[in-house]
Design brief:
heterodimer, A: 448 residues, alpha/beta, Aspartate Aminotransferase, domain 1, Aspartate Aminotransferase, domain 2, 2 domains, seven-stranded mixed β-sheet, 13 strands, 36% helix, B: 530 residues, Probable glycine dehydrogenase (decarboxylating) subunit 1 (chain A), oxidoreductase (chain A), GDC-P_N (chain A), glycine dehydrogenase (decarboxylating) activity (chain A), PyrdxlP-dep_Trfase (chain A)
Chain lengths: 448, 530
């Protein structure tokens, strides 16, 4: 077996040195009736070539985003990632290192985490950011739990513009922890009355902008009302590139900002691994979940970085910890940080403007099709269209024509007649004029 | 002839043997100081060439950003150099033995990286039509099959994103099962030796954690456990037990423990962090386990990446299978079907909710399946055996000098020492670990598990050759002898030779600096000449 350095001679010599006659003696604590004496009924070892062939065959059954006109978003986005990013994250020293428990020999990891935290804090206009969550959805669940700890209340109000699967994560966690959740109905246009839902019992209000449907939401009045009732505003985003162009949640009064960072540095990967961004105000830092990297000095007085405030964490506080999170998204943070370092403000701004411009152009082309209505007044790179018939069938018909047109809302919210005809469409810098023309042309045919 | 007749010296000769130059840059040859990007980048520099879009009317409403972003950019060669230099300050399994107990730092085959980057896996969207991702769904199904066969279970919740997330998933399934049966028990039993994530997970779900004791041999005190169960009869939701446990020992009474838990209408959650010791040697399902997460990033070698991403699928017994969260796979006539919403749920399926958006850590699934296919059932069994053999080889190499808290008995994939051998030397476990850094090793896990004093938990894994283990054992013996000889300086100030010396963690926590802020500009007010 190519990954195992011991030879049979080594094994025999080592067993003798250990003082046993057979390897099975070392497994003798396993109850006899549970010991496996045969190898399991699974394929036997295979060479690289065979493994590569098998997996390539599976991969070939899928349609990669880069091979078709591609407009699928709704929480994960197709962006171009510079070649440098993937090269750097595959350096052995990053890829095959553990969580930086020994800071003297993991300054590489610690320094990029410090850079990551700084970048996320600046992007969101918040005081502090942690060293990542698993993804945006689980981060949102943790944000709600954190708000409950801060406010010592337990009712969360969820906007109808929140990604339905994020909502499901929060609802599941809350139900299990016996906390209360008020989930507003789906709100494609951003016109719900969330203010009237906020009262003295409310611990937090969770609002996504751009919303799941693409609508940009004014967070300021929601923050004001929440604060009047000693509740926190949790601002959520799934498209981090939007922060290159729109007002950051921290400037609108958000208390916790949580979002999906996949768009920068990370590929689609069929849904994971991604990287959750999590930021808050300085005064709440000790209630934050997740790892934090901080600056300090070493014995020679040189600047260095360490994991810090770990008295919040499970390995110290056990059942009193702020979260059970341990492994997070280290390497995805690195990809995010490298890509954002390459972009800088200048590149991110340009990237965001291209995304927005492509969406605006796409909107014009789709809105010109008879029977198609665009529902959003203000949006970034994604919006919702109402079709004259069920969106799921239209998407399937377009897929057959080799165009991946977007996400039918019914995939996530099935059985709701008012959402049946809605399609969420995203456009990023990868889309060309030809892609847009192909989508508009094919949609016309499918609707005719 | 004007050629250099002196020749170039090819030996180091007597060039400055003891001289330690203080360099202008602070660099020491290959060991280079690297500032933060915020100190070297510029707001008007970018390493990405993009065109400014034209011919569109912004539709941002009133939401456009008011202030300019302050993120410095780096040109591509600057970014390359910055991150390459940072990387060189990291220890890594590719560079040397990384014996972190319980963390399973084994070799990460590059084939797995290559496979995960096939566009058919890396460039597909979780919400594109299912007709365009059939291979993706098949891959998840195939991996699920391997996991179920290896563990002897009948269902697996694939979506949890890491081990602790898997624990949460398993405990949520247990809570849902109790609720469905009209029960509302309040207590979860957790041994003292457990990973911190276990009690943290139980507490997250509102459970009261009751600790159970270990015997002198490092395993669960079964009689004590029975008494605890009797004391809290009818109020126990389950037990969270790691097996092999964190002392590196297999719980001999595991089947009896499971039966006692089941007899109390409770469930057995097994922390699967140490499953790598027994793959192909025993199946958790045969031991009575109801739920167990599998750290794909430990047992199946998806890289740790400096702290993730991980992946923590949870295998479930028949009793818990109906409660598996969304999304899950159902056997269909034309292959596996992905069930994503409650509206698609059929009779007998009672998903408790959803752990995450989308379908889980696909990138990790590809790597893990690549690992499994490469090893095969025979290779994985061999890997477990080699991991256990290597740990025992280290044990016998050190047990006469270091101290085994539970006597000279075989261990599983990791060997636990305590610090009694350092008694009266003035050297602590921490000092000892830091001295290992100067020798070119990553230290073992320290001060965990909490059940022994000054714990040192060594997990060499199956990836180490005999020569590598011999050198490690020899190094450890040298360090122990040195400590016993009273050479405290080698330890108390260690490490001396790493990119950074010991860091002040107290300072970091007392005045947390969690992001970079520009230093106050120096006072440049001209001073009047006198």
């Amino acid at each position: 077996m190519r990954y195992l350095p011991l030879s049979d001679t080594d094994r025999a010599d080592m067993l003798a040195r250990v003082g046993v006659d057979s390897i099975d003696e070392l497994f003798s604590d396993i109850p006899e009736k549970a010991r496996l004496n045969e190898v399991l009924d699974l394929p036997r070892r295979a060479g690289e070539l065979q493994v590569e062939r098998h997996l390539s065959n599976l991969a070939a059954k899928n349609v990669p985003a880069s091979t078709v006109p591609f407009f699928v978003g709704a929480g994960a986005y197709k962006h171009h990632v510079p070649a440098t990013v993937d090269h750097l994250i595959q350096r052995s020293e990053f890829l095959t290192s553990y969580t930086p428990y020994q800071p003297e020999i993991t300054q590489g990891t610690l320094q990029y985490l410090f850079e990551f935290q700084t970048q996320v804090a600046r992007l969101t206009a918040m005081d502090v950011a942690n060293a990542s969550m698993y993804d945006g959805s689980t981060g949102t669940g943790e944000a709600v739990l954190m708000a409950h700890r801060v406010t010592k209340k337990k009712k969360a109000v969820l906007s109808g513009g929140l990604h339905p699967q994020y909502r499901a994560v929060v609802e599941g966690l809350s139900e299990m922890a016996n906390d209360d959740v008020v989930s507003l109905p789906a709100d494609p246009t951003g016109t719900e009355d969330i203010l009237s839902q906020i009262d003295d019992e409310t611990s937090c209000v969770v609002v996504q902008s751009p919303s799941f449907y693409g609508q940009l939401i004014d967070l300021k009045p929601i923050a004001e009302k929440a604060h009047q009732h000693k509740a926190l505003l949790i601002a959520v985003f799934t498209e981090v590139v939007s922060l290159g162009l729109i007002e950051p949640p921290g400037a609108q009064g958000a208390d916790i900002v949580v979002g999906e960072g996949q768009s920068i540095g990370n590929g689609l990967n069929f849904g994971g691994p991604y990287v959750g961004l999590f930021a808050t105000k300085q005064k709440y830092v000790r209630q934050m979940p997740g790892r934090l990297c901080g600056e300090t000095v070493d014995a020679d007085g040189k600047r260095g970085f360490v994991l810090t405030l770990s008295t919040r964490e499970q390995h110290i506080r056990r059942d009193k910890a702020t979260s059970n999170i341990c492994t997070n998204s280290g390497l995805c943070c690195l990809a995010f940080t490298i890509h954002l370092s390459l972009l800088g403000s200048k590149g991110l701004g340009q990237m965001a403007r291209i995304n927005h411009a492509n969406a605006v152009k796409l909107k014009q082309e789709l809105a010109a099709i008879s029977g198609v209505d665009v529902l959003n007044s203000a949006y970034f790179n994604e919006f919702t269209v109402k079709l004259p018939k069920a969106a799921a069938g239209v998407v399937e018909a377009l897929a057959e024509k080799g165009i991946l047109a977007g996400v039918p809302v019914s995939r996530l919210e099935p059985g709701k007649a008012e959402l049946e005809d809605l399609l969420v469409v995203a456009s990023t810098e990868v889309n060309t004029d030809e892609d847009r023309a192909a989508l508009a042309g094919a949609l016309k045919e499918v609707l005719a | 002839m004007s050629m250099n007749t002196q020749g170039r010296p090819t030996s180091a000769g007597d060039a400055g043997t003891a001289f330690q130059p203080k360099t202008f840059t602070g660099n020491r040859a290959l060991d280079m100081e690297e500032p933060l990007i915020f100190e070297v980048g510029h707001l008007d520099v970018t390493g990405v060439d993009l065109d400014e879009p034209e011919g569109f009317e912004p539709q941002l409403g009133t939401h456009a950003r008011a202030d300019e972003l302050d993120l410095p950019g780096l040109a591509e060669p600057e970014a390359m150099r910055h991150y390459v230099r940072l990387s060189r300050n990291n220890y890594a399994i590719d560079a040397g033995l990384y014996p972190l107990g319980s963390c399973t730092m084994k070799h990460n085959p590059r084939l797995n990286e290559k496979m995960a980057r096939l566009p058919g896996f890396s460039d597909i969207h979780p919400l594109q039509p299912l007709s365009t991702v059939k291979g993706g769904v098949e891959l998840i199904d195939e991996l699920a099959h391997w996991l179920m066969v290896m563990t002897g279970t009948s269902a697996v919740a694939m979506s949890p994103k890491a081990g602790a997330h898997g624990e949460l998933c398993g405990m949520m399934a247990i809570k849902a099962a109790h609720t469905a049966a009209g029960r509302d028990p309040k207590i979860v039993l957790v041994p003292e030796s457990a990973h911190g994530t276990n009690p943290a997970t139980a507490a997250l779900l509102g459970y009261k954690v009751v600790s159970i004791d270990a015997k002198d041999d490092g395993t669960v005190d079964f009689d004590g456990l029975k008494a605890t169960i009797a004391e809290h009869e009818g109020n126990i939701a389950g037990i969270m037990l790691t097996n092999p446990n964190t002392c590196g020992l297999f719980e001999r009474d595991i089947i009896e423990i499971a039966e006692a838990i089941h007899a109390a209408d409770a469930y057995f959650y097994c922390d699967g962090a140490n499953f790598n010791a027994i793959v192909g040697k025993a199946r958790p399902g045969d031991l009575g386990v109801d739920a167990m997460h599998i750290n794909l990033h430990k047992t199946f070698s998806t890289p740790h990446g400096g702290g993730g991403p991980g992946s923590g699928p949870v295998v479930l017994s028949d009793r818990l299978a109906p409660f598996a969260p969304l999304p899950f796979l159902r056997k269909g006539e034309n292959g596996p079907e992905l069930v994503e919403t409650t509206a698609e749920v059929e009779d007998g399926e009672k998903p408790f909710g959803r752990m995450t958006a989308f379908h889980g850590q696909m990138g990790m699934y590809v790597r893990a399946l690549s690992y499994m296919l490469s090893h095969g059932s025979d290779g994985m069994r061999q890997a477990s055996e080699d991991a256990v053999l290597n740990a025992n080889y280290v044990r016998v190499g050190l047990q006469d000098l270091m101290t085994l808290p539970f006597g000279e008995r075989p261990c599983m994939h990791e060997v636990l020492f305590d610090d009694s051998f350092l008694k009266d030397t003035g050297v602590t476990t921490l000092d000892f670990a830091k001295a290992m850094i100067d020798e070119g090793y990553h230290p073992m896990t320290m001060y965990f598990p909490l059940v022994v004093h000054g714990a040192m938990l060594i997990e060499p894994t199956e990836s180490e050759s005999r020569a590598s283990l011999d050198l490690f054992v020899a190094t450890m013996r040298d360090l122990v002898m040195s400590a016993k000889r009273g050479e405290t300086e080698r330890f108390s100030g260690a490490p001396y030779l790493s990119p950074r010396r010991r860091l002040d963690e107290t300072l970091a926590a007392r005045k947390p600096v969690l992001k970079w802020t520009a230093p106050e500009p120096a006072d440049v007010t001209p001073v009047a000449a006198e």
